[in-house]
Amino acid sequence: MLTITHFTKSYKGGKKAVDDLNLVVERGDIYGFIGHNGAGKTTTIRAVVGVLDFEEGDIAIDGISIKKDPVACKANTAYIPDNPDLYDHLTGIQYLNFIGDLFGVSKADRERLIKKYSDAFQITANLGDMISSYSHGMKQKLAIISALIHTPKLLVLDEPFVGLDPKAAHMLKTIMVELCSNGSAIFFSTHVLDVAEKLCNKIAIIKGGQLIAHGKTEEVKGKNSLEDVFLELIDND
């Protein structure tokens, strides 16, 4: 579903934020992408979703190159950044309908999925309110719902559990498992290593822009906890 091939991104001064990254996320995968701050996680994620240009390597979504046909790639992808930038002058339901229009979601599917997910995240009663009145957590929930209503083939999330209360975080994990059991794939970054260990079937660890471990979660961590393995790998120079 997602193939990253020799992806390299350099910024001004020639410093490489990501250096020759190769990664494959298959249908049904919940793939955790972990690393310390500045390791290259967000740079990679922003390139995957077509927000950030890059010169070296390629990224393909469902077999389509993000460079050659970014619109087709984005049609199959949903992206939730770590700090969602929503339209404060709209109500919650206006924003969800805007996203539904953008992705061509039918009226029946839209109504069914908005009800399903807004009930699940307990913000149905707030959908008529202006987004400007929402708390950070409510904005995060609205962003998640907007990402789910077109049933993406690939869901990309950057620190998705930040700002969510425990009940909402549990609901998101349940939905992620459900989505992947129906053939979608999820690629997400997180600092919550115990969540990654329990939720992800595959893990990639990035350090200084380079992939230092990746594969099935059980193989990456062995008999240790993911936290122990992560700390050993990033501290080992």
UniProtKB/TrEMBL annotation:
<dbReference type="InterPro" id="IPR017871">
    <property type="entry name" value="ABC_transporter-like_CS"/>
</dbReference>
<dbReference type="Pfam" id="PF00005">
    <property type="entry name" value="ABC_tran"/>
</dbReference>
<dbReference type="InterPro" id="IPR051782">
    <property type="entry name" value="ABC_Transporter_VariousFunc"/>
</dbReference>
<keyword id="KW-0067">ATP-binding</keyword>
<dbReference type="GO" id="GO:0016887">
    <property type="term" value="F:ATP hydrolysis activity"/>
</dbReference>
<protein>
    <submittedName>
        <fullName>ABC transporter</fullName>
    </submittedName>
</protein>
<dbReference type="InterPro" id="IPR003439">
    <property type="entry name" value="ABC_transporter-like_ATP-bd"/>
</dbReference>
<keyword id="KW-0813">Transport</keyword>
<keyword id="KW-0547">Nucleotide-binding</keyword>
<dbReference type="GO" id="GO:0005524">
    <property type="term" value="F:ATP binding"/>
</dbReference>
<dbReference type="InterPro" id="IPR027417">
    <property type="entry name" value="P-loop_NTPase"/>
</dbReference>
<dbReference type="InterPro" id="IPR003593">
    <property type="entry name" value="AAA+_ATPase"/>
</dbReference>
<feature type="domain" description="ABC transporter">
    <location>
        <begin position="2"/>
        <end position="233"/>
    </location>
</feature>
